[in-house]
Amino acid sequence: MTLRLLLLFVFSALQCSVFAQEFKIIGYLPYYRFDIIDQIDFKKITHLNLAFLNPDIDGNLTIGDRDIDPLIAHAKSINPGIEVFIALAGGGLTEESAQAYDKFMLPENRNEFAGLLVDYVIIHDLDGIDVDLEWGHVNEYYSPFVLILSDSLKSHGKQLSAALPATYRYPEVSQEAMDAFDFVNLMAYDKTGPWRPNDPGPHSPRELAIQSIAYWRNQGLDNVRMTLGVPFYGYDFTDQSNVTAFTFETMVNESEHYAYSDQVGEKYYNGIPTIQYKAHYAMNEVAGIMIWELGQDAFANNNEYSLLSAIDFVVKTGNLPITGLDINLTSDENRIKIFPNPFQETLTISSREVHEMVIVHLFDLQGREHFREEFLLLNNEKSLDFHRLVSGLYVLKVEFGEVCITKKIIKSN
After folding, report:
1. Going from the N-terminus, what domains does the chain have, and what CATH number goes with each?
2. Would the pTM of this model clear 0.85, i.e. be above it?
3. pLDDT tens, position by position, 190-205
4. pLDDT value, residue 341
5. CA–CA separation, 301 vs 256, rounded Å?
6. pLDDT at residue number 271
7. Residue 393: pLDDT above 90?
């Protein structure tokens, strides 16, 4: 089978099989990113989780002292069908908020606390609440609180979701509490990080996404109530005494070529191919994909490398772009040399063995063909002029006889 036929077969096989219900694209947006909402394309998400709403010790609810109403109005003006949730807690509670949760989740206080939260949802015309209490804050009061909050929300036609770890179920989360969630966002990231400075490596590899879905399926969570979490950030282990987080945008600002990688030196993150792989995998396995967080994406001059747009492409087409197929050079690669790579204006194809017609194709990330030429390798090489081609990552396909070779190439400025 030629590579062309193989690609057609793979593309048809990759068509999404789960379009019976709307595929959720859930984006978290923390309050400290509210000032960049004009840069976010809310048409490309179905759910917006505003993060994080927390009580003080007196029961006053705040989300970083920000007013959420203008943001909600803006998002719905762009995408009237978007559902907006308020997310509770988060992984970085202040000491006062931690004490407040300990207080308000007690049996004598939880009914009143649930009432305050539901009132907040109704006042701000929200669609639901996402519970993101984590680790030490998931205690014996968690499940009873979830059940009361669920009953209160659903009596008003509102929804309840949760964010839970990739491959760990807190013992305190009862089956009744699990059943109360309309859907669960799987945090399939943070496998390692600053808390493990001597364990550098990918914090959100593809394998973790697959393991996460399998784990929760074994916990009895239905696929139609799972969303797969993906990170728009990474961790820098260059200085293991000071491991730090960074946004995807910072990598693209360094070089647009980094948008297609998952590692640069000791910096680990998810680039476009991995994010698209996960989106496609989620479409065939679960009910949606979740993003932490929207404000870490590539914007402005680097908008063409947006991870949200990369997800949107997969969801709308049901296909992985050609680079997402991980096609590498075949065993015939030594018969043809393609250089230099990266290249600026001219790409050379050379061979001392091939004395037959050669067909060259050039595809972009969406599989669109930008170039096709058929020629004989006179004097053992051929130079191709690509000076009009915009910079970026492409796939070059070379066919000769029954052999097809594909190679990822970079056009630089």
Report:
1. 3-7+326-411 (2.60.40.3080), 17-317 (3.20.20.80)
2. no
3. 999 999 999 999 999 9
4. 85
5. 10
6. 94
7. no
What does the pLDDT look like over 115-169, one tens digit per residue?
999 999 999 999 999 999 999 999 999 999 999 999 999 999 999 999 999 999 9
Beta-bridge mates of residue 129: 86, 160
